[in-house]
User: What shape does this take?
Amino acid sequence: MRHGKKFNHLGRTASHRKAMLSNMATSLILHKRISTTLAKAKELRKYVEPLITRAKEDTTHNRRIVFSYLQNKEGIKALFGDVVEKVGTRTGGYTRIIKTNFRLGDNAEMCIIELVDFNELMLKDAQPAKKTTRRSRRSTPKATDSVDAPAAKADETKEENTGE
Assistant: This one.
């Protein structure tokens, strides 16, 4: 029975799976975006997000722990350098999975997994989001003030003109 076993073995032995996820995590950190199958991307997300969280605090201990997972010096430099610069304020959710299409050979569902703060196109679209206002039947105090304000200014100018 497999009650409560949520780990996807991806049809590989433990050593093969560990090496594959390590290589994929290094590629994701170095290239900021990779294309893979949906199952691998979901497992990679669980593998790489704790490493990014650990990299936020740059200590020798954290570097050694992350190195034990990645086994790549260039990946460590990139992770503790420019990746942490961009995601330092984020509390989680460092990766995004975008489904693309199905692979021709075996019809596997393909996707793109990317680091969220490095996609310039989506960041550009997200910034100019304009503020939406709620329409309700009640009149707001601001609306009545703005209607009364021009009349009040007109009364003040009449009083000033008559006073001179």
Observations:
- The radius of gyration is 27 Å.
- The chain is about 55% helix and 10% strand.
- The chain has a mean pLDDT of 86.
